[in-house]
Design a protein that fits this description.
Membrane topology: Multi-pass membrane protein
InterPro entries: ABC2_TM, ABC2_TM_bact-type, ABC_2_transport, Nod_factor_ABC_transporter
Largest sheet: none
Structural class: mainly alpha
GO molecular function, one term: ABC-type transporter activity
Number of helices: 13
Subcellular location: Cell membrane; Membrane
Shape: elongated
Organism: Kribbella albertanoniae
Length: about 260
């Protein structure tokens, strides 16, 4: 009896994941560079928040890193995956994508294996970031920390899928770089990653409300305070799940179309 197609997809996803992970471990410089930016924010910007923590958190916490680390976690999940498309363009030019096209492997597996590798790398980076923050004074309940890692994984899957999708469409670093940078900057500024948007003027707060990532950041901050069933935490989970569904759907459709 022939194996079920679903089991084939899982096996093919695992094969693609293993190949992608070996490539990452063989050349870990990209992963190190992506982690270095949050670490610099942690050590060089985080201490500046301590005197104003009560103000920027509206008295919800006196621990500066309960405000700052959730933002860095979301930043890592977003920016750590947003630029993975450059690697796919390099594979396209090296003929890897053309080789994939002539294999019987599921097009979904070709995307899912790469996305799974990106998610594993991002979660590992997030754990290292959390460990680095402990000596600085970070204290958070384990439930909130675990949920934040789940959110990182979902964000990583979302932005990796979208990045691969855009890379397959543009097939050019010259087109991909300005497009991603043009998207990344507004997302960074309106999400409240570095500072909560609540301390900004009313017009800026209203403008930031249109960014789903703002609600994700607020949700992770609530989780770090132990409020895992609060309204901000649930809204954050809702938005990250919705973004993941959309991102994976767009990525899968593009892979099926461009790799056919």
């Amino acid at each position: 009896m022939a194996p079920a197609r679903g089991s084939n997809v899982l096996r093919e996803t695992w094969i693609v994941f293993n190949r992608a992970m070996r490539l990452s471990l063989r050349n870990p410089m990209w992963s190190i560079l992506m982690l270095s930016q949050p670490l610099m924010y942690l050590f060089l910007f985080g201490p500046l928040l301590k005197p104003i923590t009560a103000q920027i958190s509206e008295g919800a916490t006196t621990n500066a890193y309960q405000v700052f680390i959730p933002g860095l976690i979301v930043q890592l999940g977003m920016f750590g995956a947003m630029f993975v498309g450059f690697g796919l363009i390099a594979e396209y030019r090296a003929g890897v994508i053309e080789a994939d096209r002539v294999t019987p492997a599921s097009r979904i597996a070709l995307m899912a294996g790469r996305v799974l590798r990106d998610v594993v790398v991002l979660v590992a980076q997030s754990v290292l970031l959390l460990v680095a923050a402990l000596p600085l004074g970070l204290r958070a309940p384990w439930k909130g920390v675990l949920l934040s890692l789940v959110i990182v994984a979902l964000l990583g899957a979302t932005f990796a899928s979208l990045s691969y999708s855009v890379a397959l469409i543009t097939k050019s670093e010259d087109a991909l770089a300005p497009l991603l940078n043009g998207i990344a900057m507004p997302l960074l500024l309106l999400s409240g990653i570095l500072l909560p948007m609540q301390i900004g003027p009313t017009w800026l707060q209203r403008l930031s409300d249109i960014s789903p990532l703002k609600h994700v950041v607020n949700g992770v901050r609530a989780m770090f305070r132990g409020e895992v069933t609060s309204s901000p935490a649930l809204w954050g989970l809702f938005w990250v799940v919705l973004l993941t569904v959309v991102g994976l759907a767009v990525g899968a459709r593009t892979f099926r179309k461009e790799s056919a």
